[in-house]
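Example record

Each entry pairs one chain with its bound ligand, shikimate-3-phosphate.
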Amino acid sequence: LLRLLGPRAIVLVGLMGAGKTSVGKRIAVKLGLAFADADAEIERAAQQTIPEIFATHGEAYFRDGERRVIRRLLDGHPKVIATGGGAFMSEETRIAIAEGGVSVWLRAELPVLMARVRRRSNRPLLQTDDPEATMKRLMDERYPVYAQADVTIESREIAHDLVADQVIAGI
Ligand code: S3P
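Structure tokens for the complex follow.
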């Protein structure tokens, strides 16, 4: 598999709560690849948390940084990359990913997403009066775009380890 992949990256896309980071880490361990989390890389580069970046510079600034960070991660050695939920919405990023890796959409239903994001409140986009309605709107907007990923894997309420196995079998 690794020989077939060559210098390419495995890039996980999908909504907040789909399990991109947890599943990505497990794929990396199973394949002996490095793992990178784009959100964490942006936070490290900016020396600020994502909510702080959104609050002080706005979303457009965050998206600029996100595009740059993903391009840099794709240029490096082969790795598994977990992207933030909005990253794949950028056409420039989709092209960069298509050139440098295989994209995997971790698709999940609304209750699964909501159960997972409830445990982490660091998502500025969900700081709304009705996070579930916001998540539904994001599903409507984004699912047609995520569907352009090379592979789609259903991320159910099962162990992340099993989802990781399904991704490896699917790529
Ligand atoms: C975002 C998802 C977040 C983070 C930022 C914006 C989005 O990443 O990049 O809060 O637009 O969906 P996760 O999907 O890892 O939560």
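Residues 59-75 form the longest helix (17 residues).
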